[in-house]
Please model this.
Amino acid sequence: ATEHSLGDFSDQNLRILLAGDHPIFRMGLQTVAEKVPDAQVVAQALTAEERLQLLHSHDPELLITDLLMPAHQHATDLQLLADIREQFPELSILVVTSVTEGQLLRAILRLKIQGLMNKTQVLDELPAAIASIRRGRPYIANSVRNAMLEALQLEKARPKTLEQLSPREQEVLKLFATGVSVSKIAEQLGRSKQTVSAQKISAMRKLRLTTDVALLIYLQKKQA
Model:
């Protein structure tokens, strides 16, 4: 494959790979993307495996992708995107997602992608996002910026250490951070599943975290 830089996009057809696990979402993306002058959708991927395979076989210049796994596996999604970023350094990546959790959005941006926007904005904003990326400028939708600002404000108000949690809550979170399920934690600690679940929820409330992914990101930072 010949190397291509962002600056070359305006002189040729922009080859786009779409990835998402909902056919109607992909159809909508294709309809809007192909209205952009000199843009061509070369393939569509349904799964993470197919996405990687099509990146190798079609050599697109732009990947427009959703997160392809359920919410509890978003951490794996982030790792897969990080792997793609490493394997295809010349590829531009635009993530179009329904995720609104500020911490997760910031984690996506840290992967050095070129664009991030919400699914609800596709009709209005996708052409502008593609145009911006073609010019070598990142595109971050306003709604994404606002969600990240809110997350940042929450983070400032969040306890700096885990010491405000009870010893039992700390114990549960330490195990949860290693990928152990609530059921297994209960088994290991000799407590009921309901007790462990309540302790985890209580800890998340004190830390002002609303999702398991946000909790995992927070705990990974604490261990770093």
Notes: Residues 1-11 have pLDDT under 50 and may be disordered. The first strand starts at residue 14 and ends at 19. The two ends are 38 Å apart (CA to CA). Residues 9 and 134 are 6 Å apart (CA to CA).
